[in-house]
Amino acid sequence: MAHLRAGHRRTGFALLGAFLVLLLGGLIYGLTRDLSDLTGLASGAALTIISVIAGAFALGWFGLVLTSYISLSPNKLDSRGQIVSGVLVGVLCVSVMAPFAYVANAAVTTKDLVQTVFKKAGSDPDIAPVADPVKDPWNGRDRVNFLLVGGDGAGNRVGVRTDSMTVASINIKTGNTVMFSLPRNLQHVRFPASSPLAKHFPNGYMADLPNGGLLNEVWQYGNDHPEIMGGPHKGPRALMDAIGHTLGLKIDYYALINMYGFVDLVDAIGGLRIRVDHDVKWGGTFGTAGTIKAGTRKLSGEQALWYGRSRVGSDDFSRMGRQRCVIGAFAKQATPDKILANFTKIANATKKLAETNIPEELVPAVAELALKVKGARITSLQFVPPEFWPGSADWPKIRVAVSKALQASVRPVRQKLASAPSASPSGAASGAPSESPTTSASGQVTAAPGATTSPTPTPNDNKAAKSLDEVCGL
Questions:
Q1: Backbone phi, psi, residue 177, to 5°
Q2: Residue 172 half-sphere exposure, CB side, CA atoms within 13 Å?
Q3: Quick check: helix, strand or coil at residue 144?
Q4: Do 112 and 147 fall into the same domain?
Q5: Separation CA 187–CA 438 (nearest Å)
Q6: Fewer CB atoms < 10 Å away: N or C end of the chain?
Q7: How many helices, marked H, and strands, marked E, lie in the chain?
């Protein structure tokens, strides 16, 4: 308009036409796309293009505003008018450049995040190459299995202790997800014949130790014994093999989350809203640092961490129930608007806390799958007493339960006729006959064959997978 006012009609109409074309093109693109279409922009090449285009638009708008101002001959104004108009034009330049600068910065930050956290395809010989990451990222399969590991790498410990282990089995078409939670004290897991540890532990991991051989030791054992595993940093592969063999699933990828870095991630999205069924004491000596009161609470990162980790007045199995609720709450509440509004904080937190073997080429496909999961049905099954005893696990029974849970996840949801069940993280007590537990010197709970039912420290109804919305009140 400034060029038209200054009498430069050809230039003015050309600029106005170009603006209208770009505006119309942007509107058409925005109205004909949804969030899943935008996930393809998460690749490194696309992010580079976005940052360059955003930078070019920022400079273009700056040049347009400046030339428009000059075309109006500001030198004809008095000194005061020149100062005021110059300041206003400067503010206008910053205003029109700011959105494009934000987009360019977000693209550069995302690219840095992707390249920091995710590895290039072929860097891990244990991961099958992806033939076509665009048209067929999952190699023709209808389900993909991710191992989500919560690692406790505190400064007073050597290595990483995997205290939280959950497999998310996702239906690629629908996004329906079944989460399988395994107790950290599951003893003497077996390994598939393809694993080097199968020959080393033919009767199960550390089977000669009645109170040892815990699942949360497998990762570190694999890292500590490259001579057995066939190379360095094979802890993830050892744990994937053990858990996959236990569940009867092929674990495709893993993601390790440092529990203490998780605090920053939760704070970055503004906290998590979680229903707390009972007071949870945390931190200090025997929970003296604080108490998370019962009720629906907005938890900070530190509170969410301790809500999922505290065992004061409870046990490992109760903690597992709370952990799955934290994971479910994050999956539901990390909405696109929160991610965009706090993107830099989230990216910086993620770079510090995450380790994964998901190849960089699959990032767009994983992002698209995550959007499906957010709007899909999430169910959960925990392998805890009284149905499953970690000290004397019934491996075939576990695999049958996994198969039933996966079959149930693809069936339509039926309307419940009975009253709503308890929504505590651990569920209601099961009245089915079961073997009663005994406690070993190490604090392990094991089953006593032939004994009658005895209540566990945490009541659990874990015969079938439960909806997280139902169990956690999400």
A1: -125, 140
A2: 12
A3: strand
A4: no
A5: 14
A6: N
A7: 17, 13
- Distance, in Å, from the CA atom of 300 to the CA atom of 308, rounded to the nearest integer, reads 12
144: left (phi over 0), alpha (psi -120 to 50) or beta: beta
**pLDDT 10s digits, 348-368:** 778 777 788 998 888 889 988
Question: Could you write out the DSSP letters of every residue in 247-290?
Answer: HT----EEEEEEHHHHHHHHHHTT-EEEEESS-EEESTTTT-SE
Residue 66 domain-assigned?
Answer: yes
Residue 214 phi/psi, 5-degree rounding, is -85, 150
220 within some domain: no
Which parts of 100-231 are beta strand (E)? Answer: 143-152, 161-171, 177-182
69 and 147 in a single domain? The answer is no
Lowest mean pLDDT among 18-27, 112-121, 160-169, 185-194: 18-27
Q: How far apart are CA 256 and CA 276, in angstroms?
A: 26
Whether residue 314 sits in one domain with residue 450: yes
Q: Say what the pLDDT of residue 469 is.
A: 72
Q: How many domains does the chain have?
A: 2
Amino acid found at 416: K
Alpha-carbon distance of 409 to 404, in angstroms, equals 9
In tens, the pLDDT along 3-13 reads 555 555 666 65
pLDDT in tens, 301-341: 888 888 888 878 777 778 778 888 888 888 888 877 787 77
What would the mean pLDDT of 82-91 be, rounded to a whole number?
A: 85
Q: Which domain holds residue 301?
A: 143-209+242-412+420-472
Same domain, 62 and 148: no
**Pairing assessment for the beta strands 295-299 and 272-276 based on DSSP bridges:** antiparallel
Measured CA to CA, the distance from residue 386 to residue 433 in angstroms comes to: 9
Three-point CA angle 440, 445, 449, nearest 5°: 95
